[in-house]
């Protein structure tokens, strides 16, 4: 079916992004994808995480956004989303629903250090997540809350470290889960998994490889019915797992879309999924279920021929 993500910090502006998005969607032909359009994604959180720049509006950090009245944040997000939509970007891999406790603050490597959190109170973060998500939806842009079940209490940055990436406090009734629920209740169609570890939830697996966390807590306990996507599967926190196993373990745990910033490895990933699906009927059935979830999402976005956007 095909999807893509803008990475690396595009500074050339709206015209280049629009042209690139259009070219990519032209490749979604009946022969290539059955005519099903692509998810064209970007990380447009704000602050240090804004992949599309140039003449795109500069977005303040989430920590600043979190001080705004929800109505103002929703209106602002609608404006940022309108720029994305006009440039052919239909998915924003935001907002961050992670809560960073005040006592950790900047010591939280992936989020707090960069002011990527809306705040330190789950209820307040949930209100901002809701407003951001609704604003993007108002502009016709889908969203993904991240990084489930939360990386606000870890110290190491999972992208670059395999140490200090455990949250020993997180439980299945943790108050820090609520902003994620608020996000998909507000319309976010995707949840991005963390690559951190949560010993009280699963003593053996990082979140993205955990059936207990994805199928158990996220889908069954909390009731999420949408698409589950990885954070970058090349993160240092999971690199000890062979690449092919990262793909199959995620899908086998109930996930749907693999995100990789290392595109030359895509054929290896696809081959691993295909061969495992052919040899293991149980895994094959999980892949079919994932395909249906992704198609349902795309249909709701008007990317499936004959299906209007919801």
Can you describe what's shown?
This protein has 310 residues and is of the alpha/beta class. It has one domain (3-229): TIM Barrel. The chain is built from ten helices and nine strands. The protein has helices at residues 14-26, 30-33, 62-65, 70-86, 122-138, 178-185, 211-221, 243-252, 266-279, 281-300, and strands at residues 3-6, 39-42, 44-46, 49-50, 91-92, 142-148, 190-193, 227-232, 257-259. The strands form two sheets. It has a seven-stranded parallel β-sheet with strand order 1-2-5-6-7-8-9.
List the helices and strands and how they pair.
Layout: E1 3-6, H1 14-26, H2 30-33, E2 39-42, E3 44-46, E4 49-50, H3 62-65, H4 70-86, E5 91-92, H5 122-138, E6 142-148, H6 178-185, E7 190-193, H7 211-221, E8 227-232, H8 243-252, E9 257-259, H9 266-279, H10 281-300
Parallel strand pairs: 1-2, 2-5, 5-6, 6-7, 7-8, 8-9
Antiparallel strand pairs: 3-4
- DSSP summary, beta strand count: 9
Q: Stretches where pLDDT falls below 50 for ≥5 residues? A: none
Q: How much helical structure, as a percent, in the residues?
A: 25-40%
Average predicted confidence as pLDDT: 96
Main sheet summary: 7 strands, parallel
Count of domain modules: 1
**Rounded Rg:** 18 Å
Q: Can you tell me the overall shape?
A: globular
- The H-and-E topology, N to C, reads as EHHEEEHHEHEHEHEHEHH
Q: What is the CATH first-level class name?
A: Alpha Beta
CATH superfamily annotation = Glycoside hydrolase, family 3, N-terminal domain
Structural class: alpha/beta
The span between the termini is 20 Å
CATH topology: TIM Barrel
Report strand order across the widest sheet: 1-2-5-6-7-8-9
Assess the beta-strand content as a share of residues. Answer: 5-15%
Helices, by number, come to 10
* CATH arch. level architecture: Alpha-Beta Barrel
């Amino acid at each position: 079916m095909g999807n893509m993500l803008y990475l690396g910090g595009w500074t050339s502006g709206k015209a280049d992004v629009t042209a690139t998005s259009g070219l990519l969607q032209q490749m979604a032909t009946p022969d290539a994808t059955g005519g099903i359009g692509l998810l064209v994604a970007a990380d447009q959180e704000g602050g240090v995480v804004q992949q599309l720049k140039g003449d795109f509006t500069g977005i303040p950090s989430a920590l600043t956004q979190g001080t705004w009245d929800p109505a103002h944040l929703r209106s602002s997000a609608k404006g940022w989303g309108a720029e994305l939509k006009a440039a052919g970007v239909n998915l924003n891999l935001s907002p961050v629903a992670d809560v960073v406790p005040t006592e950790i603050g900047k010591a939280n490597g992936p989020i707090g250090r960069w002011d990527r959190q809306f705040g330190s109170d789950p209820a307040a973060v949930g209100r901002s997540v809701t407003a951001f998500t609704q604003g993007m939806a108002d502009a016709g842009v889908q969203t993904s809350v991240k990084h489930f079940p939360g990386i606000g209490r870890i110290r190491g940055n999972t992208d670059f470290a395999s140490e200090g990436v455990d949250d020993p406090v997180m439980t299945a009734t943790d108050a820090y889960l609520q902003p994620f629920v608020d996000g998909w209740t507000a319309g976010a169609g995707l949840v991005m998994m963390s690559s951190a570890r949560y010993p009280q939830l699963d003593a053996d697996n990082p979140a993205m490889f955990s059936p207990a966390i994805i199928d158990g807590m996220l889908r069954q306990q909390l009731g999420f019915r949408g698409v589950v996507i990885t954070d970058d599967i090349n993160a240092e926190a999971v690199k000890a797992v062979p690449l092919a196993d990262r793909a199959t373990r995620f899908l086998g745990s109930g996930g749907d879309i693999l995100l990789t910033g290392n595109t030359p490895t895509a054929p290896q990933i696809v081959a691993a999924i295909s061969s495992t699906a052919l040899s293991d009927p149980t895994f094959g059935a999980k892949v079919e279920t994932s395909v249906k979830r992704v198609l349902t999402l795309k249909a709701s976005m008007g990317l499936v021929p004959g299906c209007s956007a919801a």
